[in-house]
User: Fold Major facilitator superfamily permease from Companilactobacillus kimchiensis.
Amino acid sequence: MLLLSMKYLKSEKTYAKKIDIVGTILSVVGVSALVYSIDGTKYRMLSLIVAIVGLILFVLYEGRTKEPIMPLSLFKDKERSYAYIARFLFMGFALSYFFLTPLAMQRVYGFSPLESALGFLPETIPQFFMAAVETRLSTKISNSKLLMIGMLFTVAGTAATAIIGIQTGYLWAIALPMVLIGIGQAFSLSPLTVAGVANTTPKMTGSASGVVNTVHQIGGSVGLSIVVAMVSQYSNPAISYNHAMIWITGLITLSMLFSFGIFKISKKS
Assistant:
């Protein structure tokens, strides 16, 4: 890959930038405090105050500095803004689902860690093959339509698990809905990435891509913290997982709504 990239990829103009040290520190402090305020054991109110102050200062600083780590102008475009929010929520769903489901399979069904890993094959195999299908369809179907197809499959699979209940058994509650989730993820992630860097200049593309990766990471952490906090009072593993799936379904449904906003904007243009 390295040799091929050296031969075939064209060299483009680069833009020198200074490291936004202050912005980086404020963002790390703000987001870390926010996550701890949701799922921490002590000083949660203090953490929330630190998070609010840190994130406000971060936004104010980014609006004034000449070389921001996150240019606020990126959020002026509705399609990109919707894509960032949709991805944030999508990763909240994804990390929560992939973290809690194997634990539930071990606690409810008595699966070993290896069996729990193999239990995800109904999700990973369809995702692997459908990702190739999505690539071919992207030349024939618009990005926003592919995104909506993916979201519908993902919501359907997640809602099915929430409605059926894990106590019904692995096949009906986990495996079959996983097929829908795998197809949905294959069709969703790439279009969300494309929408996240849409309508940017060459100078802004790197920053837009950075924001995509940032909301990708933060969304997973915040989403998982919220879901875990909401179900921490349940000692029964089946009840805990079923309630978690309700919250997880809510996250992916909200992501689908913002994805629909991308679809509407794309349809107008």
In short: The mean pLDDT is 92. Residues 16-70 form one domain.
